[in-house]
Amino acid sequence: MTTAAALLLFSTTPTFAEGKGKKEPKVLTAEEQVKLEEIEARVLEIRDMELSNLEKAEKAEIKAELKSLEKEARALRGTGLYISTGALIIIIILLIILL
After folding, report:
1. How far is CA 42 from the centre of its chain?
2. How far, in Å, CA of 71 to CA of 32, rounded?
3. Engineered SS bond to 28: which of 4, 32, 42, 72, CB 3.0-4.6 Å?
4. Are 11 and 85 in contact (CB under 8 A)?
5. Residue-wise pLDDT tens digits, 42-71
């Protein structure tokens, strides 16, 4: 019984809105497009680097740079946020308890 309830609570269910078409991709301005191309070029440059010759601190610096480039590219592209059904229910319960 509790297993079934847990599976129901933490399962994700895809839902589709009726009558709505697919989400159109975000239209980028010329400046945003240039910035995305610069980010892509830098990521390719880092990918082609020989990382085995670098010090540990240099590797950490490159990793941090890649993370910041990923965040910046994601912000420009406007990707969405997805929440599972279980997480949504927990958030609602916490809000009810706290408020």
Report:
1. 20
2. 14
3. 32
4. yes
5. 999 988 888 888 899 999 999 999 999 988
Query: What Å distances lie between residue 68 and 30, 65, 76, CA to CA?
Result: 21, 5, 12
Residue 33: name the closest of 65, 73, 80, 79 by CA: 73
For the packed helices 30-48 and 56-77, what is the interaxial angle rounded to 10 degrees?
Answer: 150
Instruction: Please state, in angstroms and rounded to a whole number, the distance separating the CA atoms of residues 68 and 48.
Output: 19
Predicted local confidence at residue 88, as pLDDT: 86
**Mean pLDDT computed over 24-35:** 77
**In the numeric block, which tokens belong to residue 88?**
């949504």
Own/partner contacts of 37-43, CB < 8 Å, gap of 24 or more, are 39/69, 39/72, 39/73, 40/73, 42/69, 43/69
